Amino acid sequence: MFENITTEDLKRMTETEGLIFQGCGGDLNEWVSKVNEMFTENGVLLNGDTFNNVFVFQHEGLTDMLFIMKDVELDIRKLTMWRLQTHGRFGGTWLSDFLNNQFGINSNFDFERIEKTATLSAKAPPNCDDMNGLHSKDIKTNHSLQVHIDFYDKSFGGFTIPLPTTPETMKPFLEHIDITHWQDVKICEVFSEIDGLGEMLTRVVSMESPTALDELNYLSAKIAAMDEHECDIFCAALETGKHGKSIAEVINITENLDCFCLQPAYNTEQYGEHIITMHMDETADIVKKLMLSDDPKERVLAEHIVLLEKHIDYDSFGIGIASEESGVFTEMGYITKTTRLSDIYHGLQDIPDKYRLLPKSNESIWGFEETPERVMVQNTDLSALLLEMHAVCGDYMCDAKYNVALMKNCDEFFVLDKGCMLMVYPANLLYYSDTYEHELWQSLTDSPDYKAYFMSVESRENGQVIGSLYEAEVSSIQDSIQTLGIDFTHIDAEMKDGTNCSFTHAEWKSMEQLERDQLKSCVKHYSSSDKALLSAFTSNLGSLLSCKSIHDSMTTHEFLHRINKSYMDKAANKKTGMIRITLDVARELLTQNESDVYRMTAKGTEKLSPLDAVKTGLWYSFDREFAIKPNDLKGLEKWAKRTAGDFIQQAKRSRYKKGREEAL
Question: Which residues contact 45 (CB under 8 A, 6 or more apart)?
Answer without folding.
Answer: 36, 39, 51, 72, 73, 74
